[in-house]
Amino acid sequence: MSEAKRPIDVAVGILMRPNGDVLLGQRPEGKPYAGYWEFPGGKVEPDESILAALKREFVEELGVEIESAEEWCGVEHVYPHAHVRLHFFISRDWRGEPQSLEGQAFAWQGSVGVTPLLPATIPLLEWLDQLRYAGSGR
């Protein structure tokens, strides 16, 4: 497999409040899909574990320290600019309040109302709703 065709590993974090709300961020100007909403995260560096990348990205982007996170699912998506392998983690345990360290907008969402959503994010929302509301009788 050629180097160009290997998917890029990306660590993605879903911060989940006790009420089920999740944090979404808006991609800043200058990045592909600027203005689209997604779960925060970023590229895994060589010789870095996915969880270590997740923790680093959350400190760099949001000033949040993830205490613990559970691996949730993996999704591959081919965008025009990149083939990515997204590794999703759910964290209910973090320190600090999210801040916009890269000039990006972010929003806590119950039922997700922000648009447009990054294409790879859309199918996950239905699965996430099942997980968030499994025990709440909804």
From TrEMBL:
Among its keywords, does the record have Metal-binding?
A: yes
InterPro entries the record matches: MutT-like, Nudix_hydrolase, NUDIX_hydrolase-like_dom_sf, NUDIX_hydrolase_CS, NUDIX_hydrolase_dom
Q: Which residues form the signal peptide?
A: none
| CC cofactor | Mg(2+)
- What Pfam families does this protein map onto? NUDIX (PF00293)
Kindly give the Gene3D superfamilies that the UniProt entry links to this protein.
Nucleoside Triphosphate Pyrophosphohydrolase
Q: Reaction catalysed? A: 8-oxo-dGTP + H2O = 8-oxo-dGMP + diphosphate + H(+); 8-oxo-GTP + H2O = 8-oxo-GMP + diphosphate + H(+)
EC numbers for this chain: 3.6.1.55
SUPFAM superfamilies xrefs: Nudix (SSF55811)
What does the UniProt keyword field contain? DNA damage, DNA repair, DNA replication, Hydrolase, Magnesium, Metal-binding, Mutator protein
* Residue stretches making up the Nudix hydrolase domain: 5-132
Per UniProt, the enzyme's principal EC class comes to hydrolase
| The keyword DNA damage belongs to this UniProt entry's keyword annotation | yes
Q: Where are the transmembrane segments?
A: none
Q: Please report which protein family the annotation says this sequence is part of.
A: Belongs to the Nudix hydrolase family.
User: What name does UniProt use for this protein?
Assistant: 8-oxo-dGTP diphosphatase
Q: Which organism is it from?
A: Massilia terrae
